Amino acid sequence: MTREQRCAKIREAVGSFQLEGRCGNIVPYGSGHINDTFLLSCRDREGTEKRYILQRINDEIFKSPQNLMENIENVTSFLRKKILLGGGNPERETLNIVRTKAGKSFYKDTIGSFWRVYPFIEGSVCYDRASNPGIFYESAVAFGKFQKLLSDYPAATLHETIPNFHNTPMRFQNFLRALRSDRYGRAKQVQAESEFYMSRERDTRILMDRFREGELPLKVTHNDTKLNNVLFDRESGKALCVIDLDTIMPGFSVNDFGDSIRFGTNTGAEDERDLSKVNFDLGLFETYLKGFLRECGKSLSDTELQMLPWAAKLMTLECGMRFLTDFLNGDVYFKTQRPGQNLDRCRTQMKLVSDMEQNWDAMEGLVEKYARLCRRRPHPFPGKSAAGMI
Ligand code: ADP
Ligand code: GN1
Ligand code: MG
């Protein structure tokens, strides 16, 4: 498609929504890897500006945008009621759907692309990196609270927008398949990376095994808890709103913890090429743990608490395998801005996994300490002395 054709599609989509005022500027926005996101600026007759987020939903990845939008519609109206009951402001503390002129939550354009619009949450800021621990703590509180708010949401009514999204053993099989088919002749470049993952195959099964044994419950979870999926209030610095609700599905509570740790405890960027800048920051692990357990620690079982370090490692292992798989498959899933970016991303995740392995006792020690503090119950690591681990 040419640039002009793309612009025409964007204009067609914009024209189909109930927006306030005339739409002027439209610019690409944010650093998400999946959807096409734009910032729209509109002006009414008095010249007042109203901004929106317009997104083209990636329907290669989300096979049923209708189901996805049904989830978001239901979850955001559920959250809205809870926020009102708690005396909060639902215009800023949850996403809100802008309807099309036909009253729908999304628009399907003439070539079959799916579009949606949210009001831009003004006075908010979004971070790709925690420049101070306070930001990371706030994100932990936000994701912990999010889980708490949705704890009585009817999980069975949610569509699974990406089946097996955090099924790590299945992600491992996908990686093996990509390696064996080697469609782009890249396998020879990734021998060390492949060995790294193959030697950890047993680890990939830890959480799914607990689930099969009935020890890990399914809960309503976000499943993509990167720091840049939370908006912060520009003035107070407090976390304001959890966004990117495409992957809300029944999942493991601990994975929401783990994915935040994967992204936010990295001292470098997710695609950093200089691995000396990429380290797992144990201090930030502790910071997040405190905030997350403060909000939802009481609702976690002993097994869930025990699995928190594992979830951190497995989410990092899984994400690295997904980057590597995509590199082998020709970079078709995650957006890339340069050749080799998915391989760079994979390498940062490997570095973080290795760092976590080296800090394992300390991670378990911290979980044990804060689990005890938040629940005032015996520690969840049977057979280990808490004092010896901290
Ligand atoms: P992706 O799935 O591609 O990651 P997101 O839904 O996370 O897309 O949106 C991309 C970015 O757009 C976010 O990281 C955030 O900066 C910004 N954003 C999304 N929704 C809003 C909103 N309602 N108000 C302000 N900024 C938003
Ligand atoms: C994607 O959409 P975004 O950029 O927030 C991906 C996550 C990965 C993440 C890695 C639907 O998240 O699973 O962990 O990239 N989302 C989907 O940065 O695959
Ligand atoms: Mg996002």
Q: Could you give a quick summary of the protein structure above?
A:
The protein has helices at about 5-15, 65-85, 90-95, 135-150, 170-180, 190-200, 200-205, 205-210, 255-265, 280-295, 300-305, 310-330, 340-360, 360-375, 385-390, and strands spanning about 20-30, 35-45, 50-55, 105-110, 115-120, 125, 220, 230-235, 240, 250. With about 400 residues, the chain is of the alpha+beta class.
Describe the protein's architecture and organization.
With 390 residues, the protein is of the alpha+beta class. Helices cover 46% and strands 12% of the residues. It is built from 15 helices and ten strands. The strands form three sheets. Strands 1-2-3-5-4 form a five-stranded antiparallel sheet, with no helix packed on it. A three-stranded antiparallel sheet has the order 6-8-9. A two-stranded antiparallel sheet has the order 7-10. Strand 8 (230-233) and strand 9 form a beta hairpin. Helix 9 (253-264) packs antiparallel against helix 10 (282-296) and helix 10 (282-296) packs parallel to helix 14. It is globular and about 60 Å long. The protein starts with a helix and ends with a helix. Mean pLDDT is 94; it is low at 385-390. 2-acetamido-2-deoxy-1-O-phosphono-alpha-D-glucopyranose binds at residues 32-34, 61, 224, 226, 229, 244, 246-247, 270, 319.
Oligomeric state of the chains?
A: single chain
The portion of residues assigned to helices is: 40-55%
The total of helices stands at: 15
User: Structural class, judged by helices and strands?
Assistant: alpha+beta
Could you tell me the radius of gyration in angstroms?
Answer: 21 Å
**What is the string of helix and strand elements?**
HEEEHHEEEHHHHHEEEEHHHHHHH
Nearest-integer average pLDDT: 94
Report the uncertain regions. 385-390
Output the strand order for the largest sheet: 1-2-3-5-4
**Biggest β-sheet: count, sense, barrel?**
5 strands, antiparallel
